[in-house]
Amino acid sequence: MVFVITGPSGVGKGTLIRALLQQVPELELSVSATTRHARPGETQGVHYHFLADEEFQRRFDAGEFVESAGYSGRRYGTLRSELEDRVQAGRSVVLEIELQGARQVRETVPDAVQIFIAPPTPDTLRLRLVGRGTDSSDDIERRLGVAESELAARDEFAYVVVNDRLEEAVARLVEIVRGEMTGRPVPSTE
Ligand code: ADP
Ligand code: 5GP
């Protein structure tokens, strides 16, 4: 199974997915490629495959991406090599990607389970991005600019998880994923 997890920057996708992978250890995370620079603490091949612009373009031209998108001045994409072997072997994979990529996956992998992570209020995003302390103020403004259209797309998703209290959001995400994996889907609204 393929699980697509989307939501605006700062909503808590990375935090929720870390907890999800601990609680559902049979899930595997697809490591994306990006042309952005590594943040302190991020490791090549673990958090991302960090690629130079030319290398990203070469792989794009060679058809190596399942989906890709431009975001905040950088490119991001899911490599076929991260997805196809695992899916063929019957393993379950999580993609943490932005909206344009989620829409592409909806076309190419129609049975992927699409989950949108929403903030309790729009103001939460700024507070969390500033609190995370990893992005410049220009980058935060760019990310918040994109967030408006991302938030408007939540109804496109089979599931919406509001990340207000972390433990509750993790529990809901685990419930959704386990429900889908065992063929007993939970109701899509909270
Ligand atoms: P994203 O991956 O969606 O950009 P992160 O997982 O990096 O978001 O989370 C952004 C910031 O918000 C981090 O500093 C994280 O610790 C914090 N955060 C995540 N979830 C919550 C929550 N439920 N309540 C408060 N802070 C949170
Ligand atoms: P960040 O720079 O904060 O790590 O990621 C910025 C945005 O890019 C986030 O919304 C994240 O989900 C998204 N992203 C990460 N990897 C991919 C990918 O492989 N494809 C797409 N389309 N988006 C991605």
Low-confidence stretches: none
Oligomer: single chain
Please give the order of strands in the largest beta sheet: 2-7-1-8-9
What gap, in angstroms, lies between the N and C termini? 22 Å
Helix content class:
40-55%
SSE-based structural type? alpha/beta
Q: What is the beta-strand fraction?
A: 15-25%
Number of strands: 9
Secondary-structure element sequence? Answer: EHEEEHEEHEHEHHEH
Q: How does the overall form come out from the CA principal axes?
A: globular
Mean pLDDT: 95
Count of DSSP helices? 7
Description:
This protein is α/β, with parallel strands linked by helices. It has helices at 13-23, 53-61, 80-88, 99-108, 123-132, 137-151, 166-181; strands spanning 2-6, 27-29, 33-34, 49-50, 65-71, 74-79, 92-96, 113-118, 159-162. Strand 5 and strand 6 (74-79) form a beta hairpin. The longest helix is centred in the C-terminal third of the chain and has 16 residues, at 166-181. The chain is globular, with a radius of gyration of 16 Å. Guanosine-5'-monophosphate binds next to strand 5, strand 6 and helix 4.
